[in-house]
Amino acid sequence: DGGITQSPKYLFRKEGQNVTLSCEQNLNHDAMYWYRQDPGQGLRLIYYSQIVNDFQKGDIAEGYSVSREKKESFPLTVTSAQKNPTAFYLCASSMAGTDTQYFGPGTRLTVL
Amino acid sequence: SQKIEQNSEALNIQEGKTATLTCNYTNYSPAYLQWYRQDPGRGPVFLLLIRENEKEKRKERLKVTFDTTLKQSLFHITASQPADSATYLCAQGSGTYKYIFGTGTRLKVLA
Questions:
Q1: pLDDT tens digits for A27-55?
Q2: Which candidate in B2, B99, B103, B106 is best for mutational testing of the A interface (most A CBs within 10 A)?
Q3: Is A74 helix (H, G, I), strand (E, B) or coil?
């Protein structure tokens, strides 16, 4: 099956801890994205990457970090510097030259 | 700044009727608009894309219009079914590889 996978589906973390969310795609897409979704708000872009070993900050990058060492993988680390990390995190990918994004199933992060 | 606005109130309609959802944009003239469907606790799924030079686009029971004068896109589901109940998101391209999403409108189709 082709698609995007995110793991874990639910994640709990204590305040002050860093946590890494996984995102893998086997669609051979060049671009990958991380969004955050909060109740009553639209998806907000955290980071995006157009090619391997390159990524750009989105609108709310503070407190987050990413890497893109492989085309199919784009992990997101939520650091302790993120003030309000509890949210639903969505990873997406798209083919170069197209405007359609394919989303993963999401990871719900709760900070205790 | 660029902004996408969708009616945050839920829309309830009777099965078999046409559902119409609205997406308004401000401070920008997007080259295209996209519509996605999102079920609770899941990622959005792409439905349709309409470009600024297209007045209307259809896909099965779905129809999207783009009115650049009103700065608005309408999303229609004809012969609606309870399975169409979901949140529908509107999005616009904002430069290369960047998109702005609306908050979404929750649709509930009553049997």
A1: 999 999 999 999 888 899 999 999 999 99
A2: B99
A3: coil
